[in-house]
Amino acid sequence: MSLLKNVKSSTGLIFLSCILCAGLFYANANPSENDDNYAADNEVNKPFSLIVIDPGHGGDKPGARGRISAEKDVVLQVSKKLKESIEKEMPGVKVLLTRESDVDVPFYERTALANNNHADLFLSVHCNSADSERRVKGRNGRYTTQVTRRPNVRGTETFVCGYNRLGQQDVAIRENADILLEDNYKENYNGFDPNDPSSYIVFSLMKRKYRDQSIKVATMMQEEYVQSGRGNRGVQELSLAVLATAGMPAVLTEIGFISSPDEENFMLSPAGQTEIVSNLTTAIKRFKTSVER
Fold first, then answer.
1. Does residue 10 belong to any structural domain of this protein?
2. Integer Rg of the chain from CA
3. CA separation for the pair 204, 210 (Å, rounded)
4. How far is it, in rounded angstroms, from Cα 28 to Cα 139?
5. Which of 41, 142, 185, 190, by CA, is between 20 and 30 Å from 87?
6. Is the dihedral of CA 133, 250, 155, 2 positive or negative?
Protein backbone atom coordinates (compact mmCIF):
# COMPACT_ATOMS: atom_id res chain seq x y z
CA MET A 1 0.00 0.00 0.00
CA SER A 2 1.41 3.37 -0.87
CA LEU A 3 0.30 6.50 0.94
CA LEU A 4 -1.11 9.13 -1.41
CA LYS A 5 -0.80 12.55 0.19
CA ASN A 6 -0.43 16.00 -1.33
CA VAL A 7 -0.86 14.60 -4.84
CA LYS A 8 0.49 16.96 -7.48
CA SER A 9 0.42 16.93 -11.27
CA SER A 10 3.64 16.06 -13.07
CA THR A 11 5.70 18.57 -15.03
CA GLY A 12 5.68 18.17 -18.80
CA LEU A 13 2.66 15.87 -19.03
CA ILE A 14 0.13 16.58 -21.71
CA PHE A 15 -3.23 15.85 -20.13
CA LEU A 16 -6.17 15.35 -22.45
CA SER A 17 -9.41 15.59 -20.52
CA CYS A 18 -12.76 14.36 -21.62
CA ILE A 19 -16.17 15.11 -20.22
CA LEU A 20 -18.64 12.40 -21.10
CA CYS A 21 -22.35 12.91 -20.62
CA ALA A 22 -21.86 16.68 -20.74
CA GLY A 23 -21.56 16.66 -24.50
CA LEU A 24 -18.06 18.12 -24.63
CA PHE A 25 -14.64 16.82 -25.56
CA TYR A 26 -11.69 19.11 -25.07
CA ALA A 27 -7.93 19.15 -24.57
CA ASN A 28 -5.70 20.87 -22.05
CA ALA A 29 -1.92 20.77 -22.05
CA ASN A 30 1.02 21.34 -19.72
CA PRO A 31 -0.58 21.62 -16.28
CA SER A 32 1.43 23.52 -13.70
CA GLU A 33 3.70 21.41 -11.51
CA ASN A 34 2.23 22.88 -8.32
CA ASP A 35 -1.41 23.04 -9.35
CA ASP A 36 -3.28 20.27 -7.55
CA ASN A 37 -6.53 21.34 -9.16
CA TYR A 38 -5.46 21.56 -12.80
CA ALA A 39 -8.10 19.07 -13.98
CA ALA A 40 -10.92 20.80 -12.15
CA ASP A 41 -9.70 24.30 -12.98
CA ASN A 42 -9.79 23.52 -16.69
CA GLU A 43 -13.22 21.92 -16.75
CA VAL A 44 -16.24 23.61 -18.15
CA ASN A 45 -19.43 23.41 -16.12
CA LYS A 46 -20.58 19.82 -15.88
CA PRO A 47 -23.69 18.97 -13.90
CA PHE A 48 -22.91 16.85 -10.85
CA SER A 49 -26.24 15.20 -10.24
CA LEU A 50 -25.95 11.58 -9.09
CA ILE A 51 -24.04 9.79 -6.34
CA VAL A 52 -24.13 6.07 -5.64
CA ILE A 53 -23.48 5.18 -2.00
CA ASP A 54 -22.52 1.60 -1.26
CA PRO A 55 -23.09 0.34 2.31
CA GLY A 56 -20.49 -2.43 2.53
CA HIS A 57 -21.29 -6.10 3.13
CA GLY A 58 -24.82 -7.24 4.08
CA GLY A 59 -26.85 -10.42 4.48
CA ASP A 60 -24.70 -13.44 5.27
CA LYS A 61 -21.56 -11.29 4.90
CA PRO A 62 -21.52 -9.18 8.06
CA GLY A 63 -18.05 -7.72 7.53
CA ALA A 64 -16.03 -6.86 10.62
CA ARG A 65 -17.54 -7.45 14.04
CA GLY A 66 -17.21 -5.28 17.10
CA ARG A 67 -18.16 -6.12 20.66
CA ILE A 68 -21.83 -5.26 20.18
CA SER A 69 -22.37 -4.68 16.47
CA ALA A 70 -21.57 -5.79 12.94
CA GLU A 71 -20.10 -3.62 10.20
CA LYS A 72 -22.97 -4.29 7.80
CA ASP A 73 -25.49 -2.70 10.18
CA VAL A 74 -23.41 0.35 11.13
CA VAL A 75 -22.60 1.31 7.54
CA LEU A 76 -26.21 0.87 6.41
CA GLN A 77 -27.38 3.27 9.13
CA VAL A 78 -24.72 5.83 8.18
CA SER A 79 -25.35 5.46 4.43
CA LYS A 80 -29.09 6.06 4.79
CA LYS A 81 -28.45 9.19 6.82
CA LEU A 82 -25.82 10.33 4.33
CA LYS A 83 -28.28 9.95 1.45
CA GLU A 84 -30.80 12.09 3.34
CA SER A 85 -28.17 14.70 4.18
CA ILE A 86 -26.83 15.01 0.64
CA GLU A 87 -30.26 15.34 -0.94
CA LYS A 88 -31.16 18.00 1.64
CA GLU A 89 -27.91 19.97 1.50
CA MET A 90 -27.23 19.60 -2.23
CA PRO A 91 -30.33 20.53 -4.25
CA GLY A 92 -30.43 18.82 -7.61
CA VAL A 93 -28.24 15.91 -6.52
CA LYS A 94 -29.83 12.47 -6.29
CA VAL A 95 -28.44 9.56 -4.28
CA LEU A 96 -28.89 5.86 -4.97
CA LEU A 97 -28.01 3.18 -2.41
CA THR A 98 -26.67 -0.18 -3.56
CA ARG A 99 -28.69 -1.76 -0.76
CA GLU A 100 -31.37 -0.44 1.56
CA SER A 101 -31.80 -3.53 3.73
CA ASP A 102 -29.77 -6.38 5.17
CA VAL A 103 -28.97 -8.17 1.92
CA ASP A 104 -25.71 -9.13 0.25
CA VAL A 105 -25.11 -7.49 -3.12
CA PRO A 106 -22.35 -8.88 -5.37
CA PHE A 107 -19.47 -6.49 -6.06
CA TYR A 108 -20.21 -6.27 -9.77
CA GLU A 109 -23.83 -5.26 -9.13
CA ARG A 110 -22.78 -2.47 -6.79
CA THR A 111 -20.54 -0.87 -9.38
CA ALA A 112 -22.94 -1.67 -12.23
CA LEU A 113 -25.62 0.43 -10.54
CA ALA A 114 -23.28 3.42 -10.71
CA ASN A 115 -22.14 2.70 -14.27
CA ASN A 116 -25.63 2.10 -15.65
CA ASN A 117 -26.91 5.34 -14.15
CA HIS A 118 -23.85 7.40 -15.19
CA ALA A 119 -23.12 8.38 -11.59
CA ASP A 120 -20.73 11.23 -10.88
CA LEU A 121 -19.30 9.59 -7.76
CA PHE A 122 -19.22 6.10 -6.26
CA LEU A 123 -18.70 5.97 -2.48
CA SER A 124 -18.38 2.70 -0.59
CA VAL A 125 -18.79 3.03 3.19
CA HIS A 126 -17.07 0.58 5.57
CA CYS A 127 -15.86 0.09 9.14
CA ASN A 128 -12.29 -0.96 9.80
CA SER A 129 -10.95 -3.62 12.16
CA ALA A 130 -7.53 -4.23 13.64
CA ASP A 131 -8.47 -7.62 15.07
CA SER A 132 -6.98 -10.73 13.47
CA GLU A 133 -7.81 -14.41 13.56
CA ARG A 134 -5.71 -17.51 13.22
CA ARG A 135 -6.35 -21.23 13.47
CA VAL A 136 -4.57 -22.88 16.40
CA LYS A 137 -4.15 -26.62 16.93
CA GLY A 138 -4.81 -27.67 20.50
CA ARG A 139 -3.29 -30.53 22.48
CA ASN A 140 -6.27 -32.67 21.60
CA GLY A 141 -5.47 -32.22 17.92
CA ARG A 142 -8.48 -30.04 17.24
CA TYR A 143 -8.24 -26.61 15.70
CA THR A 144 -9.81 -23.55 17.22
CA THR A 145 -9.95 -19.93 16.10
CA GLN A 146 -7.85 -17.56 18.18
CA VAL A 147 -8.66 -13.85 17.97
CA THR A 148 -6.00 -11.24 18.63
CA ARG A 149 -7.63 -7.97 19.62
CA ARG A 150 -6.08 -4.54 19.14
CA PRO A 151 -8.59 -2.17 20.76
CA ASN A 152 -6.25 0.83 20.73
CA VAL A 153 -6.03 1.09 16.93
CA ARG A 154 -8.25 3.97 15.79
CA GLY A 155 -8.77 6.44 13.01
CA THR A 156 -10.18 6.94 9.55
CA GLU A 157 -8.75 6.22 6.12
CA THR A 158 -10.01 6.41 2.56
CA PHE A 159 -8.93 4.20 -0.33
CA VAL A 160 -8.66 4.64 -4.08
CA CYS A 161 -8.22 1.82 -6.56
CA GLY A 162 -4.67 0.55 -7.00
CA TYR A 163 -3.02 1.01 -10.39
CA ASN A 164 -2.99 -2.75 -10.99
CA ARG A 165 -6.80 -2.80 -11.17
CA LEU A 166 -7.31 0.20 -13.45
CA GLY A 167 -7.42 -1.96 -16.57
CA GLN A 168 -10.79 -3.24 -15.41
CA GLN A 169 -12.26 0.22 -15.98
CA ASP A 170 -12.01 -0.08 -19.74
CA VAL A 171 -15.38 -1.76 -20.26
CA ALA A 172 -17.16 0.62 -17.90
CA ILE A 173 -15.71 3.67 -19.61
CA ARG A 174 -16.64 2.37 -23.03
CA GLU A 175 -20.18 1.61 -21.85
CA ASN A 176 -20.50 5.08 -20.35
CA ALA A 177 -19.34 6.54 -23.65
CA ASP A 178 -22.38 5.28 -25.53
CA ILE A 179 -23.77 8.80 -25.37
CA LEU A 180 -21.12 9.78 -27.89
CA LEU A 181 -22.46 7.38 -30.50
CA GLU A 182 -25.23 9.51 -31.85
CA ASP A 183 -26.04 11.60 -34.90
CA ASN A 184 -23.74 14.55 -35.51
CA TYR A 185 -21.26 13.26 -32.93
CA LYS A 186 -18.35 14.91 -34.78
CA GLU A 187 -20.01 18.29 -34.55
CA ASN A 188 -21.23 17.74 -31.02
CA TYR A 189 -17.95 16.39 -29.65
CA ASN A 190 -15.28 18.35 -31.48
CA GLY A 191 -14.34 15.67 -33.98
CA PHE A 192 -14.47 12.57 -31.77
CA ASP A 193 -14.80 9.60 -34.15
CA PRO A 194 -15.71 6.21 -32.57
CA ASN A 195 -14.57 4.49 -35.77
CA ASP A 196 -11.04 5.89 -35.45
CA PRO A 197 -8.91 3.72 -33.10
CA SER A 198 -6.72 6.69 -32.23
CA SER A 199 -9.75 8.44 -30.76
CA TYR A 200 -9.93 5.81 -28.06
CA ILE A 201 -6.89 7.24 -26.34
CA VAL A 202 -9.56 9.22 -24.52
CA PHE A 203 -10.45 6.15 -22.50
CA SER A 204 -6.98 5.72 -21.02
CA LEU A 205 -6.93 9.43 -20.28
CA MET A 206 -10.31 9.18 -18.59
CA LYS A 207 -8.82 6.59 -16.24
CA ARG A 208 -6.13 9.09 -15.32
CA LYS A 209 -8.76 11.74 -14.75
CA TYR A 210 -10.91 9.42 -12.61
CA ARG A 211 -7.89 8.50 -10.51
CA ASP A 212 -6.91 12.14 -9.98
CA GLN A 213 -10.47 13.01 -8.99
CA SER A 214 -10.75 9.94 -6.73
CA ILE A 215 -7.64 11.05 -4.88
CA LYS A 216 -9.04 14.57 -4.64
CA VAL A 217 -12.37 13.58 -3.07
CA ALA A 218 -10.66 11.03 -0.80
CA THR A 219 -8.30 13.75 0.44
CA MET A 220 -11.24 16.08 1.09
CA MET A 221 -12.94 13.37 3.15
CA GLN A 222 -9.85 12.85 5.26
CA GLU A 223 -9.51 16.60 5.76
CA GLU A 224 -13.07 16.80 7.06
CA TYR A 225 -12.51 13.90 9.45
CA VAL A 226 -9.41 15.69 10.79
CA GLN A 227 -11.37 18.93 11.26
CA SER A 228 -13.64 16.99 13.62
CA GLY A 229 -10.70 15.62 15.59
CA ARG A 230 -10.74 12.10 14.15
CA GLY A 231 -7.54 10.14 13.69
CA ASN A 232 -6.10 10.42 10.18
CA ARG A 233 -4.64 7.29 8.60
CA GLY A 234 -4.49 9.02 5.23
CA VAL A 235 -5.46 8.35 1.64
CA GLN A 236 -4.16 5.05 0.36
CA GLU A 237 -4.37 2.85 -2.71
CA LEU A 238 -5.52 -0.75 -2.51
CA SER A 239 -6.51 -3.45 -4.97
CA LEU A 240 -10.24 -3.34 -4.22
CA ALA A 241 -12.68 -5.26 -6.42
CA VAL A 242 -15.58 -2.98 -5.51
CA LEU A 243 -13.77 0.03 -7.00
CA ALA A 244 -12.05 -1.66 -9.95
CA THR A 245 -14.80 -1.37 -12.57
CA ALA A 246 -16.22 2.03 -11.62
CA GLY A 247 -16.37 4.34 -14.64
CA MET A 248 -16.27 7.48 -12.50
CA PRO A 249 -14.39 8.80 -9.45
CA ALA A 250 -14.69 6.08 -6.79
CA VAL A 251 -13.49 5.75 -3.21
CA LEU A 252 -13.95 3.49 -0.20
CA THR A 253 -13.95 5.23 3.15
CA GLU A 254 -13.37 3.52 6.50
CA ILE A 255 -15.34 5.60 9.01
CA GLY A 256 -13.65 4.13 12.08
CA PHE A 257 -12.43 0.95 13.77
CA ILE A 258 -15.25 -1.28 14.95
CA SER A 259 -12.57 -3.26 16.83
CA SER A 260 -12.06 -0.24 19.10
CA PRO A 261 -14.80 -0.11 21.77
CA ASP A 262 -14.60 3.69 21.84
CA GLU A 263 -14.93 4.06 18.08
CA GLU A 264 -17.62 1.39 17.89
CA ASN A 265 -19.69 3.30 20.45
CA PHE A 266 -19.04 6.52 18.54
CA MET A 267 -20.17 5.02 15.23
CA LEU A 268 -23.31 3.60 16.84
CA SER A 269 -24.26 6.83 18.60
CA PRO A 270 -26.60 9.40 17.01
CA ALA A 271 -23.99 12.11 17.63
CA GLY A 272 -21.21 10.07 16.05
CA GLN A 273 -23.25 9.20 12.98
CA THR A 274 -24.30 12.83 12.60
CA GLU A 275 -20.65 13.92 12.68
CA ILE A 276 -19.56 11.30 10.13
CA VAL A 277 -22.43 12.21 7.83
CA SER A 278 -21.58 15.91 8.17
CA ASN A 279 -17.92 15.24 7.34
CA LEU A 280 -18.77 13.26 4.20
CA THR A 281 -21.47 15.67 3.05
CA THR A 282 -19.12 18.64 3.37
CA ALA A 283 -16.35 16.82 1.49
CA ILE A 284 -18.70 15.88 -1.34
CA LYS A 285 -20.01 19.45 -1.57
CA ARG A 286 -16.42 20.68 -1.87
CA PHE A 287 -15.70 18.09 -4.55
CA LYS A 288 -18.85 19.00 -6.49
CA THR A 289 -17.78 22.64 -6.49
CA SER A 290 -14.31 21.74 -7.75
CA VAL A 291 -15.52 19.65 -10.70
CA GLU A 292 -18.20 22.14 -11.74
CA ARG A 293 -15.87 25.14 -12.05
1. no
2. 20
3. 10
4. 68
5. 41
6. positive
